[in-house]
Amino acid sequence: xxxxxxxxxxxxxxxxxxxxxxxxxxxxxxxxxxxxxxxxxxxxxxxxxxxxxxxxxxxxxxxxxxxxxxxxxxxxxxxxxxxxxxxxxxxxxxxxxxxxxxxxxxxxxxxx
Amino acid sequence: xxxxxxxxxxxxxxxxxxxxxxxxxxxxxxxxxxxxxxxxxxxxxxxxxxxxxxxxxxxxxxxxxxxxxxxxxxxxxxxxxxxxxxxxxxxxxxxxxxxxxxxxxxxxxxx
Lengths: 112, 111
What we know:
Chain A has 112 residues and is mainly β. Chain A contains no helices and eleven strands. Chain B has no helices and eleven strands.
């Protein structure tokens, strides 16, 4: 059983489109995250939710909107995609105070 | 100055060699430290936490020097399977779970 699963694994789309990435964790963790890894391999936090509440919201364009329907799910919706949005998006989860992250396999987004 | 800095490498070493990576961090109040490993086109995975007194896990040894604000990772008897990117990760004080990742050091172990 995959601990943190995200779909789709690959996403190729045109500029201007809207797309979503879904994430689910079966670890019983309280906190979930979205990280972006760009072409230079720099991994940067975008958002974090704890028990469905937004607790970290980095400087991310408001075209990116996270949604957490329950503590096991955290989805990412991106409006009006731009070329610079091309990256690998990793979902992760952690117990509230453990600080150790378990990552999903990543969703590689390519915007043409 | 970047919050977490690492030499990107690549470090090319022969099998069996000992190799060490350093990582420096800018926030002196940082509280917790980790090494993650990321294989090519895969997700990062926790390798080990780094404790103040230093800690060892098999062939891997992690050290923390708070005075100089650096963390090190030593790999003894390198295996081909150790080839990966090693990410230094820091949790700044007050950052909650906002872990800050270095850009990683690439290791290639060769025959």
